[in-house]
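Pilot study result, target chain (179 residues):
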Amino acid sequence: MRKLILASALSVLVTGAAQAGEQYVDESGFAISGYDAVAYFDIQQNAVGTRQPEAVPGKALITAEYNGATWAFSTEANRDKFVADPAKYAPAFDGHCAYGLAQGGKVPANPNLWRIVDGKLYLNITPNVVGFWESDIPGNLTKADQNWTGKEAAPASSRSWKAIDDNKGTYSVTAPIEG
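Predicted structure:
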């Protein structure tokens, strides 16, 4: 019986490790393009159908490592919160576009196109995609979660969200900032 329990525990550990996905990191070299993952939870969200406030840029000198990536934070307090519970603050789907996952793809995400749903941060790729995402958030979440099972272990997207013309005007600051 003891061997069975140990074998089951080892199987869970091995399976979990095999399913760990790569964090989306763009040309900035940082997760969420250098924006502060914790700060999203302090920003007042706008109603569905209206644009969210811009994300808070992190600082290149205030960082932490998680899921194979470097994360930048606007304050040391935010970094400490993240380090204490990174799964709480890290965006769903390793920072890839939530609607993209609902459609079966692992594509980059724009950190300024965000929404927190049931305490979890979700990102999307373009303003147009936000409209599709928000037209049925519960249904899209169900599809994205189902698709994530088969996509999580795939390599992270290597595309840049800033290279997409539809994202022009979605940000005024490039993160992370110095200092």
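One observation from the pilot: The chain is about 35% helix and 15% strand. A full batch analysis is planned for the follow-on phase.
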